[in-house]
Amino acid sequence: MIFKVVLIGCSADIVAQAEELNGFISENLGRGDHGCGTILFCSKKQDKNALLDLVPTESVKLVTVAGYRPETILEALKIVENMEETHLYLFPGGYAGSELAVRWAFRAKGSSLVQVNQIEYTENQLIAKKKVYSDYVMGVFRLKKKPYCIAPARGSASSLPVRVKQPLTVTEHDMTHLYRDRFVESYKWTPGEKTGNLEKAKFILIGGRGMNNAESAEKLKKIANSLGAAFGVSRPAAMNAWSTMDKIVGVSGAVTKPDVCIVAGASGAAAFYVGIEKSKFIVAINKDPRAPIIKSSDVAIIDDYKAVMDELVKLISAQK
Amino acid sequence: MGLNREQITEELIKIAGAGQVITDEQVLKESSVDRFRRFEAYHGVFRMPLPAAVVNVNSTEDVAAVIKFANKNRINVIPRTGHSATEGGLEAALENSIVVDGSGMNKIINIDTYNMQATVQCGVCLQTLDDLLREQGYTTGHSPQSKPLAMLGGLVATRSIGQFSTLYGGIEDMVVGVEAVFPDGGITRIKNVPRRAAGPDIRHVIIGNEGALCFITEVTVKIFKHFPENNIFLGYTLDNMKTGFEILREVIVNGYRPSVARLYDVEDGSYYFSHFADGKCVLIFVAEGVKPIADATAAAIAEIVSQYEECEKVDPGLIKRWFEHLNWDPGNLAEEKREIVETKNICNTTEISGNWSIINEIYEVCMQRVRNEIPDLTLLGAHSSHSYLNGTNLYFVYFYNVVDCKPEEEISKYHLPIKKIIVEETIKAGGSMCHHHGVGKHRTHWIEKEYGSSYYILKKLKQAFDPHSIMNMGTIIPLEN
Amino acid sequence: MNILVCFTVIPELEMMLGEDWFVDENLQIDVGFLKHSLNCYDESALEIALKFSDAARKRHVSPNLTALTIAGPEANPILKTLNALRFNRVVRINNHEDIRFNSMAIASMLHQYVSNRMPQDVLLMGWQSGVGENAKTPLLVAEMLGWPCITQVTEIEPVDSHHLVVTCQVDDGQLQQTIQIPCVLSIGNAPNSYMRIPTLKDRMQFGRRTAEVLDANDFEPFDEGIELVSLDVINRQRSAILIEGATPEEKAGKLYKSFLAKRLNKL
Questions:
Q1: Above 90 in pLDDT, residue A187?
Q2: Which of A128, A144, A178 is the C-terminal boundary of a domain?
Q3: Residues of C in contact with B315 (CB under 8 A)
Q4: Distance (Å, rounded) from C-alpha C134 to C-alpha A134?
Q5: In CATH, what number is assigned to the domain containing residue A6?
Q6: At CB < 8 A and 24+ separation, what contacts does C49-53 make?
Q7: pLDDT value, residue C15
């Protein structure tokens, strides 16, 4: 089976792209036949050697483009791939990669599926699984038209750092002449705000009434910072002025959907729980075994949260 | 007397401890209002006098000490538990008030399944109590939409009613005994007995006092056996509200007690039921209880409705899905602020009650007047949700776009004029202007008309129990300007 | 300028009861008991179009707004609302086929509508729907039309009758581009995500206009070669596993080792 990996090197998150795809390949595909390769798009100014370290296959086409525009990438892909037999194209997870997957499949007369959790390749078909019905249901699909163009869902596979394969066959392609953007007359880019934003956070630590006072709340906030987690509070804690109102999680505050949520010293009543119910994984730490949060968590510890959190900080920092 | 803010705070710290007295400005702003003023509050406008402090109380003795201090120094006290009030009852009407917050008094003291009573502190959330009871096969039977937020202290103080009242009654039918603190710091306890005739029923001084007479610290309510597996759902579409009222009356007057008996008009119905009742009124019943009673109730209702040709049956499955999502959805509440600020569209309500013979007329005249006199309405409807032997309630629901006015003008441009029409037409017809939300601070204007000569009794209660005028001033009885 | 907003209505899935989540032998899930409402990204698209129209009129550009959906009669309440909000044209392509996961069929119908029936200058639609979660339709329409496509759009502003300013979310910030029509705009997480609400008066005056109903059978079919094999309801019950241990430190250790280490690594 011949698969190709597409990487958008001119994107800020190129390392994450490469590691996620590497993890996805390792969990779903195995090695693949001779002929597999990577198509790595980059801009002129980039450090090409650093980029080449991220290639998860034995060969790579290094394609230089003037700037990232989907139409440019798609045209370049057509030229560079030049009707080579390829069964499967893997694109990065995320909006940009997914867009390319769909549009490339159309141009290559294949089929596409994005936000995919798992794939299984056989001779005549690709079976792919992805979440549907607002993530209530797992859909299993059969793709019949090659090339199959797939973009994984973010976080569907563990990130796997690339161990550089020796030797790496590199061919270079200059596609900078393709940048002809008649339809964009002018543009302006503004950097995004640093999101301390609870709603977008992937890892959140929340404290409730059980914090008991402002100093403990401040301490828990510092713990959150050291863990790289966003810090939130239940409403009673904010109404006691142990934290600012913008940190409230729940009915009168943020509705979050982190991958990991740790709730310390909050009973988890309905008005609060709605703020965390979309979390992928909820850990509850509470002294009261009858607190509603215990039954609504994935994993719970009945104990004083302070000692548990102190130990957790040690373990997580040791790992970094 | 006249202590200043700093002095008030200092004294409160001595009484309750520094950790329990909050003077953070944002908290004080949030504590100066309730849901009545949420439009301006969501826009960051807080016009009410800022309280001097919020004090968290952790025991009845704490409450007594704080209120006694306030009484001595003539400081306005605002009792609060769940903070879900909708009529301004929690607004600070006077300068330098003290908000006394009982939400930390959240112990479930005792659940007695033999005597069928549950005793809880005032800060127990109704949802928490009822979920716990349901695990054991019981229920409080009390289910106002605010269930996920409201707490027992406030629920008793506002004479609240829930969505299953046709079977279980309102809070006044559920309270067995109660403990409350009065302005002089006195702690009074009314014991738990099934019934007595030992003088007037003094529980009714406390139930519904809206914090204007005392602070409720502990409540004992009845609990009921719960048989959700026997629930039978019945739904019908029909053309006329008048027919709907007739049917409701027939059901109740003949002695049937479904837990839910509701009539929605076309507009209000379209909000929930557009997928099966486009352009029609909707009648909903839920028969609940032990199987023989639930079955008999459902059969009887079906029989009564069948006599009215304009009624068409609706798939019970549709009613069941609606039933499972009755309460304020915490998810929707979480979005509410953003939605209101973005769309500049807000929903408010006014609930009234009246005898069977006047209710349809009240409905028609209010709908016509509001529609004609109020601008920018996007939805205007009503439903009846609590029926009695001698009449029913009407819950008017209205959404409007807030157009060409500042956030703080929303109330005077839209909400109060709508309320005025509904209140005046209802009182004129002989009904009551407040069915279950309480008077709060915005229907006080009509309180004397509401009571007529019996206002004398209400006034005397206030004078007797709160001679220094410190308890939630401006609530029920208007401030003397 | 002709602006076409394509939208879909979806069942309010949060109202489903646990027992409702059942897949039948036709790979259908019965959502018949549920109210339908606008897919949230399409709602943003509709409001963005209305805001654009308000702003455009101030610049003497009068855009012509069409709202179109491919659906059965469950979309009718929304169509009434869109008429009341004074969309110039409101269209429903009546469809009974299963197109939940068939973006190609949807895109093809939209392509044919624009090419053969009613020329447009700007197409707006949400980037995915809450049922299919395909995230393909706007991209495929752009490919079929041969038009440029901008994704994760959050805002548009008028310039003149052939140009607009499009703001979109990119990896590390926001991009504002002045573009020439025609183009397809795929709406992402826009800050204005709630559509305005028509007044009672507008509903009475404009809401009664009928939507134009076309038949999906009149459009050429298109097969992408993707087949639905199965649907499996995801068990959302949380396990509530209690971690035991003699000390808080021991419990923390178990928590990290068995549950958190791998998950935190994936972040």
A1: no
A2: A178
A3: 33
A4: 11
A5: 3.40.50.620
A6: C49/C3, C49/C5, C49/C124, C50/C85, C50/C195, C50/C196, C51/C192, C52/C3, C52/C156, C52/C157, C52/C158, C52/C164, C53/C3
A7: 82
Q: Which residues of C touch B272 (CB under 8 A)?
A: 35
Confidence class of residue A83 from pLDDT cuts 50, 70 and 90? confident
Distance CA A233, CA A246 (A): 9
B-chain CB neighbours of C33 within 8 Å are 315, 317-318, 320-321
A186 in any annotated domain: no
B1 pLDDT higher than 60: no
CB contact under 8 A, A138 and C231: yes
The whole-number average pLDDT for the span B219-229 is: 98
Decide: C1 and C121 in contact? Cβ < 8 Å: yes
Whether B19 and chain A come into contact, CB under 8 Å, resolves to yes
Residues A286 and A157 reside in one and the same domain: no
User: A161: helix, coil or strand?
Assistant: coil
Distance from C-alpha of B241 to C-alpha of B268, rounded to nearest angstrom: 12
Neighbouring C-beta atoms of residue B424, cutoff 10 Å: 15
The reply to whether A193 falls in a domain is no
Closest partner residue to B24 (CB to CB) among A241, A251, A253 is A241
A-facing residues of C in 144-163 (CB < 8 A) are 144, 148-149, 151-152, 163
Give this complex's ipTM: 0.93
Query: What pLDDT, in 10s, does the model give residues B231-245?
Result: 999 999 999 999 999
Do A209 and A104 fall into the same domain?
no
Partner-chain contact C171 A12, CB within 8 Å:
yes
Chain C contact for B300, CB < 8 A?
no
Contact B21, B13 (CB under 8 A): yes
Digit-coded pLDDT (tens) for B391-406: 999 999 999 999 999 9
Q: Are residues A244 and A106 in the same domain?
A: no
A226 and A156, same structural domain?
A: no
For A203, the token pair is 């890892």
Which of C248, C259, C267 has the CB atom closest to A304's CB atom?
Answer: C248
**Residue A135 lies inside a defined structural domain of this protein:** yes
For residue A117, the enclosing domain spans 2-178
Q: Which tens digit of pLDDT belongs to each residue from B342-354?
A: 999 999 999 999 9
- Best of B378, B399, B403, B418 to substitute, by most chain C Cβ atoms within 10 angstroms, is B378
**Co-location of A65 and A203 in the same domain:** no
One-letter amino acid of B199:
G
Can you give the pLDDT at residue A186?
A: 87
- Say yes or no for a CB contact (<8 Å) between A239 and B30: yes
**Chain B residue whose CA is closest to A239:** B27
Looking at the partner chain, which of B325, B339, B343 has a beta carbon nearest the beta carbon of C15? B325
Whether residue A283 sits in one domain with residue A215: yes
Report residue A189's pLDDT band, with 50, 70 and 90 as the boundaries: confident
What one-character-per-residue DSSP string does A204-241 give? EEEE-GGG-SHHHHHHHHHHHHHHT-EEEE-HHHHHTT
Tell me if A185 is assigned to some domain. Answer: no
C-alpha C84/C-alpha C67 separation (Å) is 12
The pTM for the full model equals 0.91
Number of domains in chain A: 2
The pLDDT value given to residue B20: 95
How many whole angstroms separate alpha carbon B352 and alpha carbon A128? Answer: 57
**Is the dihedral angle over the CA atoms B119, B124, B125, B127 positive or is it negative?**
negative
CATH number of the domain bearing residue A275: 3.40.50.1220
Q: Are residues A229 and A289 both part of a single domain?
A: yes
Asked if residue A214 and residue A130 are part of one domain, the reply reads no
Query: Mind telling me how many Å the CA of A224 is from chain C's nearest CA?
Result: 13
> Does C183 have pLDDT greater than 70?
yes
Contact B334 A273 (CB under 8 A): no
Test B401 with C197 for CB contact under 8 angstroms. Answer: yes
